[in-house]
Amino acid sequence: MSNRKYFGTDGIRGKVGEAPITPDFVLKLGWAAGKVLARQGSRKVLIGKDTRISGYMLESALEAGLAAAGLSAAFTGPMPTPAIAYLTRTFRAEAGIVISASHNPFDDNGIKFFSAEGTKLPDEVEEAIELEMEKPITCVESAELGRASRIVDAAGRYIEFCKGTFPSELSLNGLKIVVDCANGATYHIAPNVLRELGANVIAIGVQPDGMNINKDCGATDLRLLQHRVLEEKADLGLAYDGDGDRIMMVDHLGHKVDGDQILYIIAREGLRQGQLRGGVVGTLMSNMGLELALKQLGIPFTRAKVGDRYVLEKMQEKGWRLGAENSGHVILLDKTTTGDGIVASLQVLTAIVRNHMTLHDLCSGMKMLPQILVNVRFAGEHDPLENESVKAVTAEAEKTLAGRGRVLLRKSGTEPLIRVMVEGEDEAQVSALAHKIADAVKAV
What we know:
The strands form four sheets. A six-stranded mixed beta sheet has the order 1-5-4-2-3-6, with helices on both faces. A five-stranded mixed beta sheet has the order 8-7-9-10-11, sandwiched between helices. It has a four-stranded mixed beta sheet with strand order 13-12-14-15, with helices on both faces. The protein is of the alpha/beta class and 444 residues long. It has helices at 23-37, 54-68, 81-90, 123-133, 154-163, 190-196, 223-232, 259-272, 288-297, 308-318, 341-355, 359-363, 388-401, 427-443; strands at 12-15, 44-49, 72-78, 95-99, 108-115, 148-150, 176-180, 200-204, 236-240, 247-251, 256-257, 280-283, 301-304, 322-324, 330-332, 371-377, 406-411, 417-423. Strand 9 and strand 10 form a beta hairpin.
């Protein structure tokens, strides 16, 4: 990775009102991005957002900066991140900008960019934007200033796109589905997609108030969904995160179905239909059970670093079409250019309908190994992962597992956390080892 000052693995993110998520910074970011992107042609940029209250302030700031650089902004209102990637392509825009902090709490926000092709901006473009940020802001001649407009049918366009990824000969008739939209950007999209395909939909987390996004709901907290699935005797539950690029599921028994299991179902169905090109990309966090189950099917599997951009890079490097993180980012390159929660859930629903099987039964070919994840907050400059005592405890744990499990320590890309993950066959042993390593990290 380059030594970029502002851009992280997933755009620029932070607490609203603190650098860099301040109106003046975002104004300048809009201007700098405008200067870099204006070299390309259509002079139009799409701006979408999730349902955070700070989205109004930040989209205004971005729009002012873009206009000063001579680019016009087209607003979509609240839209899932993958929808902006799609619409940027169909409108032939210079770029798409999403104002979202994904699965984070409401008082965080972030800015991420998509290229004209609907992919994450190349590193060199992000670096060029950072370079412009160092210069004083200027303004083009009045006649050259950008304008602002609203795309009124953005939701309808994206709903049709999603439906188009579901086989036209199948329908969801007879399926009762609880959908949790996390009070986020899918609230007016996902329930409509599923209803229009024939499902009986019970929608929760569809009353965003600007502050309840991801709060006790959605892909990061499945308890509400699990409760409702059982209460409604539904066939399954779907949970999206605040910006709609993640999907987690719940089967009819209330069991969680995560990104690894979703990846397994989609890969196996692709194999059955003769549509799987190459293998599958997971991450360092992907459950060993996924690796073993894919091996049994003869499907090649490789691991990327954690972060959907690394999964995508590895997929492109290998020429494969399917990859995912266990957190529910699923990338289907034969359908779209980026992780898309709604599109991924439709592929699992396709397998359910086509095989007349429950979600629970579709998961049964894969045995998840016990995996314990402990998050440890850290502050300061020193790196706990370089500490000798942490290294010693980690080595000891690996010796204990004797090749029948894995230990992984890594820094979160989005929060000041060290993630300690231990995986193995015996849950009690795995838990004890994970907490022992976490204690060593805390001691530092």
